UniProtKB/TrEMBL annotation, chain A:
Keywords on record: Membrane, Repeat, Transmembrane, Transmembrane helix
Protein name (database record): SMP-30/Gluconolactonase/LRE-like region domain-containing protein
Entries under InterPro entries matching the protein: 6-blade_b-propeller_TolB-like, NHL_repeat, TPR-like_helical_dom_sf, TRIM-NHL_E3_ligases
An example molecular function term from Gene Ontology annotations: zinc ion binding
The organism's taxonomic lineage, starting at the top: Bacteria, Bacillati, Bacillota, Bacilli, Bacillales
The NHL repeat ranges on this chain: 63-95, 107-141
Coiled coil regions, renumbered to chain: none
Pfam families: NHL (PF01436)
Automatic annotation (TrEMBL), chain B:
Ranges annotated as spanning the membrane: 32-49, 69-89, 101-123, 129-150, 162-186
Residues annotated as domain Yip1: 9-177
Alphabetic keyword roster: Membrane, Transmembrane, Transmembrane helix
Subcellular location: Membrane
Protein's membrane topology: Multi-pass membrane protein
Residue ranges of coiled coil: none
Pfam families (alphabetical): Yip1 (PF04893)
Protein known as: YIP1 family protein
Record has Metal-binding as a keyword: no
Main location: membrane
Length: 497, 204
């Protein structure tokens, strides 16, 4: 088959075009889709956070990270990295340049598999030196200061193994330590290294099935049963006000908690009531992995908490009143997805840093304009400034009509303006029955006040109808039906009235 | 008009009604069918008319087929099971009488559901006890009519009535179980036949 010359020329020109046309219009699409959990379903949403860049340590003189376990970012945005595989702590400045390395020198300060770090305001570094079963303390300049070894206390029991994984130092200079394998709560250790009791243990839910099995099992069977223990804390975080936030592994609900000074959860209301329980993370009820496994969390100055779920590889952000704001990340190979996300922290400009253990790098996420807008609106809203929050929430809805939180917030603002009927419509859209009911109650009052005259007239008319109208009607009907002579049937038994 | 008069009689004098329905020519299939259709319509309207305070589902979350199915099927199985059980244990009721009077026993639900649904539009959570009291009163009334129906139609003593009712419920479960079984087996047979057809097509 012969082909014309013009055909070949055309082909050639096409080829040339393909190579010549610049690829400037190519942009990086986010590897994850934004979504939000509304009352019953997940709905597509706009991303609040997008991947910006990574720190992998390759261009630092300290070399690449190896299975890092934790990051801590201090007030001047310096980043401490627990570089566990290399048995050291690396300190970077806010430009991500190396400042210092802790714990790599031979001697008493040599670290072994450190899993958690905390830095006090004065720069003192506390390291949960997990493999060495101790807590190592370094001063600001990197010199080893002291260590806290296995605390001894009858409360801890004979089989206690000190294996600190995460820690913080509270305002009293007490260390609050999450110990691997301890389910009785967080360890409180005073500055002298003395154990001062457990703090904020998780609870076990009462179960009829367990009680039943216990009742009928023989002693041998009972010994075979696995003892039910409360879930362990996977991580902890101290916010600006000194509250300790915890994440729990293996819990089906209330995985994120804010503990008060006496260890009571103040983020979630009374957990014993079923309707107060919140499933953080993705709430799929189908499949084997239906619960989120939060491994770390971070809280900003406004009380917005971001938890990192290792099973889906996603970070979930919640506002002060437990409403989901954004989800980002996921498992995968692209930039913006993770292999093993293990720790999260944030800088003062609102960037989130997620530490990927397998890749040995830190990924930075920046807010999108939509994210900033929602944060602004949410901040006003949780402070109770509903009227001011109305305008930004309206803009949120213009960008994303799936964002049900905004409907509820605008509904609250309308309530403040006493526009109850519109508030009802918005609460219905946000699908919160309680708020709808509240608005309805006020609307009912308002309606009654405005239509008092007609209501009274209506009642009088109905009363008159019942008193005189219906009896008259009945009399007339009866007269008619008796004249029609309906067939009557006799009774069989004595049941008639 | 007969239907209307009967309905009033069920509400006002249920015993009288269940005696009279047994007289030859009183029970009409036509009435049962009309009442069943009404029941389904009322059930669907009730869901969509109930105030948002008490019915949180949006209209797209409600399936007409699903709702109707789970209303009609239990009712039909009740009729069959009740007839079967009472026929074995010397009940006097005829199948036609059972079906028609079972349909009439749903009258309180048909009559009162919609007014309650409209009333719930102006109720808030503070008055939830009012709403649920009325709702359960309707259900209780219907249950009472069903029990009386069993008693009068089959001419049972009180104790035997309860026993038969229990057996009827058990019978319903068995019917459903057999139904699911047959459904599964028929599925298998259809699969098998389709498989053979495909095989033959493939070989030819």
């Amino acid at each position: 088959m012969r082909r014309s010359i013009s055909h070949w020329i055309l082909c050639f020109m096409c080829l040339v075009l393909i190579f010549i046309i610049p690829t400037s219009s190519v942009y990086a699409r986010s590897p994850y889709e934004g979504y939000i959990w509304n009352s019953r379903h997940d709905a597509p949403s706009i991303n609040g956070y997008l991947y910006k860049d990574s720190i992998d340590g390759l261009n630092l003189s300290s070399g690449p990270f190896k299975t890092p376990e934790d990051i801590y970012i201090n007030e001047s945005d310096h980043i401490y990295i627990a570089d566990s595989g290399n048995n050291r702590i690396v300190l970077l400045d806010n430009q991500h340049e190396l400042i210092q390395i802790y714990g790599d020198a031979e001697g008493p300060g040599k670290l072994n598999g450190p899993k958690g770090i905390y830095v006090k305001d004065d720069g003192t570094l506390f390291v949960a030196d997990t493999q060495n079963s101790r807590i190592a303390i370094f001063d600001k300049d990197g010199a080893f200061k002291s260590e806290i070894l296995t605390p001894s206390s009858p409360l801890l029991g004979a089989n206690f193994i000190f294996s600190p994984s995460k820690l913080i130092v509270d305002k009293r200079d007490y260390l609050i330590v999450a110990n691997d394998g301890t389910s009785s709560g967080l360890l409180q250790i005073d500055p002298n290294g003395k154990f001062k009791g457990y703090f904020g243990a998780n609870m076990i839910e009462f179960s009829w099935a367990r009680l039943f099995v216990r009742l009928f099992a023989t002693d041998e069977q009972r010994a075979q049963l696995a003892t039910v223990r409360p879930q362990e804390f996977s991580n902890l975080y101290q916010d600006e006000e000194g509250f300790i936030w915890t994440s729990t592994l293996g819990a089906e609900y209330n995985q994120i908690k804010r503990l008060s000074a006496v260890g009571v959860d103040t983020y979630n209301p009374d957990w014993t009531k079923k309707y107060n329980r919140k499933d953080y993370g993705d709430t799929f009820t189908i499949g084997t992995f239906d619960i989120a496994s939060f491994v770390d969390l971070t809280v900003d100055k406004k009380g917005v908490v971001t938890g990192l779920d290792i099973s889906t590889g996603k970070a979930f952000q919640y506002d002060k009143v437990r409403s989901l704001l954004f989800v980002f990340g996921g498992l995968g190979d692209q930039d913006g997805l993770f292999k093993t996300p293990i720790a999260i922290d944030q800088t003062s400009d609102g960037s989130l840093f997620v530490l990927d253990k397998t890749r040995g790098r830190i990924d930075r996420f920046r807010t999108t304009p939509f994210g900033d807008l929602v944060h602004h609106a949410s901040e006003l809203f949780v402070d109770g400034r509903y009227a001011e929050a109305k305008e930004p929430w309206t803009r949120v809805l213009e960008l994303n009509s799936n964002y049900d939180l905004a409907y509820g917030a605008i509904g609250k603002a309308l309530e403040k303006e006493e526009r109850w009927k519109e508030a009802m419509a918005f609460h219905k859209k946000s699908r919160v029955q309680v708020n709808y009911s509240t608005a309805l109650r006020e609307y009912r009052k308002q309606w009654l006040r405005e239509n008092f005259g007609s209501v009274v007239a209506g009642i009088i008319i109905v009363y008159l109808l019942f008193k005189f109208g219906f009896p008259l009607l009945r009399k007339r009907l009866n007269r008619k039906s008796s004249s029609a002579a309906m067939p009557e049937f006799g009774m069989k038994g004595g049941f008639s009235e | 008009m007969n239907l209307l008069r009967n309905s009033r009689k069920v509400l006002a004098h249920p015993f009288e009604f269940f005696y009279d329905i047994q007289v030859e020519g009183q029970a009409k299939w036509r009435h049962a069918i009309i009442l069943l259709v009404l029941m389904a319509i009322v059930h669907l309207l009730k869901i969509s008319w109930t105030g948002y305070t008490f019915e949180g589902r949006a209209s797209y979350q409600i399936s007409v087929v699903f709702e109707t199915f789970w209303l009609i099927v239990p009712w039909v199985t009740w009729c069959i099971s009740n007839w079967a059980v009472s026929a074995i244990l010397d009940g006097e009721g005829k199948f036609k009488d059972i079906v028609v009077s079972s349909a009439y026993a749903m009258i309180p639900y048909i009559v009162l559901s919609l007014p309650l649904a409209l009333f719930s539009q102006i109720l808030t959570f503070d008055e939830k006890y009012t709403y649920f009291t009325i709702l359960y009163a309707i259900y209780l009334w219907v249950a009472f009519l069903f029990l009386m129906k069993v008693k009068v139609l089959h001419d049972f003593q009180f104790g035997k009535m309860l026993w038969i009712t229990l057996l009827t419920l058990l019978g319903m479960l068995i019917i459903w179980f057999v139904g699911f079984l047959i459904f599964g087996l028929v599925n298998q047979v259809i699969d098998f036949v389709i498989g053979i057809m495909k095989e033959i097509q493939f070989r030819l």
